[in-house]
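HAT C-terminal dimerisation domain-containing protein, pasting as requested.
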Amino acid sequence: LFVSIAELVSHGGYNDISRHIATEKHVSCAKAATQSKLASFFPPAGSKMSDSVTKAEVLFTGFLLEHNIPLAGSDHVRHLFKKTFPDSKIAKSYACASTKTTHIIHFGLALDASSDEFEKYFPIFVTYEVHTQKPALQLDTVSCTSNKSQELFDATNNALSKHNVDWNKCATYSTDNTANMQGKHNSILSQVKAKQTTNQEVYAVGCPYHLVHLMAEHTSKSKQMNVEDMIIDIYYHFQRSVKRAASLNEYMAFCNISVKKIVKHVIMRWLSLERSTKHTLITWDGLYSYFVRTFDEEKQRGAARPQELRILMSFKNPLMKVYLLFLHAVLPMFNKFNLLFQTKSTDDSPFAPSNDDVIQRFVQPSVVAVSENVTELNYKDSSMQLPASEVFVGFETHNYARKENMIDIRPYKTFLVEAVQFFCKALDYMKKAMPLEDPVLKSLAFFYSNQSFCDIEVIVDRFPDVISAQQMDPLLSKFRDYQVCDTLLEYDSTMRTDEFWHKISQM
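Structure tokens follow.
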């Protein structure tokens, strides 16, 4: 708003306006009026160019999410595109920084409560209809005062009711494995089942990543050593001190170790412990020299803090490195499973780390060889276990203990007992928490072309609203045609399952 002020203004008008223009409120409002509104970031559709630019922005946003790249990268990539593709009109029009990227992301299926300290936020979900290319549900984020299952369920139920979505149409339910999400009593899952009135009960799927992470965390706890606490203490010792980091770098150089940033171990982050353990072992000599030389003197003067004393005692304990080497040898057994799922492979992937892989590390081979089902073995029976000296602890672990003359000392023998307990706890947790005998997951073998028709029967019984009994006879007829047809594509075990069936559908 521009005001023309006359030479003569009665009642002090000129001074009033002059003073108002100089106030903080007016300056802030004037600045806001010149800024772009959020709607201006999303131009109306109509032209092919506009649609092409929008498509590019959405595709790149999906790329950021798929590869877990920080959204801050979108603030820089638009300038990179313009310089990299100077002759592209789409690149010149690309204008999707972090603000716009954040709003595009609101298309996904998720149920998860935040861990905010004061107020809980419970995002519902958005589904996208492929055929109509329109959102089937609007994103609905509800502010909750707690993370109790009743409040979370009410928020979900209200969102679905608002869009006339029947709970009977809910075939599967996938969340993390907390009690308020998937518990047998008074959880969201139990209330979802209570809402359903048809024969088809919702199929609940927990998070396999979370289960394996909990299994690794549960089994890694030792009565003698707390590796996780040591790694966390080391990180926070150097986190905000440039002086300490510089001193550590000097010790690293003296030990001929390339300078590496201290890795932060986050307890709730999958795969974090193995990475942190590996980093600690690589920099062990430099860290050992720093803490022993620095805090031995401070300990004598009484100047060392409790955290520093804990780290010092850990480094002085010869078994600490043994435990680190052991974890470095066995954690890939769990992380390999999580990495396999993260590849999004459609191959015949297991639904848990291999029982055989665990049990063969401490049970006698002759016992495993004659067992039809290794999960039924009484693996806690000492008569079935390997001698302590032959239990798998990793080559580097055993070699280090041998060089340090630890093999015959009592603490190392106690460590070997804990190694056996580690594997036993892993198998116990696997049998209790992992869906090893889930009939639905076992029946998913029908996706692979070398299976028989009866493999689909469990799926039909479990999801009667998805596949009706009347469809089975025509389906069997098509299956027989497939078996006798000599022009169909041959099954290749090296080919992805989805690629195989796509080629079949194109014939």
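Note for the archive: The beta strands are 120-123, 128-129, 134-135, 141-144, 172-174, 203-205.
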